[in-house]
Amino acid sequence: MFLNCLSTNWRHEQGALIQPAATHAWWFRNQRGVTYIMVMFAIVLMGISMTVVSKQWTVVMKRDKEAELLFRGNRIKAAIEAYAADYQVRKASRPNVYPLKLEQLTEKPKRYLPVVYKDPITGQDFELIKVGAEIRGVKSRSKDKPLDMVHFKNADTYDQIAFQVQAPASQPAIPGQGMFNKCPPACPQANPQSPQGQ
């Protein structure tokens, strides 16, 4: 009887030891599942946040490139105007009124541009707007739609925005839009083989 009592007590004590251990294991598994769900939720939330930030950053970068396009385009236009204005003074050493290549605007003795700017939208050379062989302006080659509808009013794509000098009084002027001209369908293109550059 004594041995049976000891055995019964031992089994009760063993059960008391096993039961908390089993409860602890269940609690641990449950917590691990909750932690996994929380981690997955955090990953999804971070992915959504990164997508939103990426879109906002893309817009910021595009606006920055548009501002640089305005700056560079107008600098080139002003340089071409200054180059043409100096023709009467320098025509003895220069047969053309307007430059035949943009590099002429950076050459000594008088430099009209510090460097030949690239198109900030594409990262490539600007497309040249020519009349005959002479450069009258530049424009982007990009077919993307501008974001800035204040400075690029009525322009459906970047390549419709032409930074070009006004034609002399003896030639018909191409209508302008503010600080730049919106290149119409008949705008002279960069093709020296045609007298109209098309």
Mean pLDDT: 75
Q: What spatial form do the alpha-carbon principal axes imply?
A: elongated
Instruction: Tally the beta strands.
Output: 4
Structural class: alpha+beta
What can be said about the biggest beta sheet?
A: 4 strands, antiparallel
Spans of at least 5 consecutive residues with low confidence: 13-18, 169-179, 184-198
Report on the structure:
The protein is α+β, with helices and mostly antiparallel strands and 198 residues long. It has a domain at 59-182. Helices cover 44% and strands 9% of the residues. Strands 1-2-3-4 form a four-stranded antiparallel β-sheet. β1 and β2 (134-139) form a beta hairpin. The chain is elongated and about 90 Å long. The termini are far apart. Mean pLDDT is 75; it is low at 13-18, 169-179 and 184-198.
Write a concise keyword list for the protein shown above.
disordered C terminus, 4 strands, 2 helices, four-stranded antiparallel β-sheet, 198 residues, alpha+beta, elongated
Brief account:
By secondary structure, the protein is of the alpha+beta class. It is 44% helix and 9% strand. The longest helix has 84 residues, at 2-85.
Summarize the helices and strands and which ones pair or pack.
Layout: H1 2-85, H2 87-90, E1 127-131, E2 134-139, E3 161-164, E4 181-182
Antiparallel strand pairs: 1-2, 2-3, 3-4
